[in-house]
Amino acid sequence: MNWEMIDSQLPTLFICINYGKVKAAILQGEDTRLEMRRRCFRQFRYQEAEGPREACSHLRELCHRWLEPQSHTKEQILELLILEQFLTILPEEMQNWVWERGPENCAQAVALAEGFQLGQPEAGLWEQQVRIF
């Protein structure tokens, strides 16, 4: 065994492993930030503003922070809105179960909901790929 070669590759291996962990943490942070922005938009109340004009202006600002129209396509924004509404209309037990698993798109949410109905909650979540045009 060539220990020098292995030894010289360890820092690269370590960086790759750490990169994976860092990337996962960043993505988790993005998911958390997106969810917080969604909640701020959805939970905003008229009483928090000083009149209709300010309320509407604040809602517009919160919506832009959540949906980021400057960096997302119309299709991505629609997918996010449809996903949220789909999760909202599910029966409560199913809704909670699916929501906890954090589907990233409608196809994943549908697969989870169908798996929940079949009594096999994990069935088909990531295997089912649906293209959205």
From TrEMBL:
It comes from the Eukaryota. PROSITE patterns: SCAN_BOX. InterPro entries: SCAN-C2H2_zinc_finger (IPR050916), SCAN_dom (IPR003309), SCAN_sf (IPR038269). SUPFAM superfamilies: Retrovirus capsid dimerization domain-like. The keyword Metal-binding does not apply. Keywords: Nucleus. Residues 38-117 form the SCAN box domain. It holds the Pfam family SCAN. This is SCAN box domain-containing protein.
